[in-house]
Amino acid sequence: MSEIFDPRTMSDGDLAAHLAEIAGRILVEVRSSGLFSPKALGKAGDQTANQFLCHALREVRPDDGLLSEEEKDNAARLDKSRVWIVDPVDGTREYGEARSDWAVHVGMAVDGAPTLGAVALPGLDGGTILRSDQTVAVPPAPQKLRMVVSRTRPAAEAVAVADALDAELVPMGSAGAKAMAVILGQADIYLHGGGQYEWDSMAPAAVAIAHGLHASRIDGSPLLYNQRDVYLPDLLICRKEHADRVLGLVAALSKG
User: Binding residues for Mg(2+) 2, per the UniProt record (predicted)?
Assistant: First the structure.
C-alpha cells in the first residue's frame, strides 16, 4: 500500500515552492479560459489564486500568521513569530497581457526578517521557480551595468542613479520579476522608491538574500516585515559589489 501524502510534513521551503507553482498554474488556466474581459481578468485571477493560497496555508500551517494582498488584514498576525506573506499575482497588468514578467510570491517572515521565499514566474520558460532554500548560480556580471525599472512608471531615484552609473535601463513588470532578473543575470540592480507593500518584496527579498545579493531599504536600513503598517515604500536589491555606491548616490540625491 502506498503512503498517503501529508502536506503537513513538507518542509516550509517545499511548501512555499509547491504553493507558488500551483497558484501559477491556476492563474494560467484562469487566463486561458477565455471567460474574462481584459478588465476583469486581473481581479478574477487575483481572487482565485488568493483563495487557493490562503485556504492551503490555513490548512497545513494553522498555527502560523498570514498576510496577503487580497485578504483583509488581521491583527492576530502581529503576535506570531512565523508569518506567511503572499502576493497571489504580482504584476496584474502583465498577467492580463500574457507577458512573462509577472510572478507569484509565497514567503515567510520570522520575527520580522525575510527568512524564506519562493517566487514563481509562470510565464517564463514554461514556468520557473526561484527559492531561498535551493539556490542557483548567479551568472557573472557583464561589463555594462543594467538597472531594472518599472516599464510604466520608472522611479525618479532609479533613473537618476542609472544616469550617474551610466547603467542601461531594463523595463520590466512586477517587483518579483525585477528582483529575480538580478539572480537570473538579466540585470545587476533593482532600485525602487515609488511605493510598495510588504507582499511586493518579502518573498523576493528572501530569495535574493539567499542567493548572496544585497537587499535593504534605499537608506540602507534592514527590510522588516509583519509590521502593523504594511506599507514598505522602497527597496534595493543588487549585486553586493554595487550596494555601497548605489546607497551613496541615493543619499546624495535625497540631500538635493
Answer: 90
Average pLDDT over residues 164-176: 95
| Residue 2 clears pLDDT 80, i.e. is over it | no
CA–CA distance, 157 with 236 (Å, rounded to integer): 11
Q: What is the dihedral of CA 145, 94, 150, 103, to 10 degrees?
A: -70
**pLDDT per position as a tens digit, 3-37:** 556 777 889 999 999 999 999 999 999 999 999 99
Annotated binding residues for Mg(2+), as ranges?
Answer: 69, 87, 90, 200
We find that the CATH architecture of domain 146-254 is: 3-Layer(aba) Sandwich (3.40)
Architecture of domain 7-131 in CATH? 2-Layer Sandwich (3.30)
Cell triple for 209 = 538574500
Within a 13 Å sphere around the CA of 124, how many CA atoms are in the beta-carbon half? 22
Binding-site residues: 69, 87, 90, 200
Is it the case that residue 92 has pLDDT exceeding 70? yes
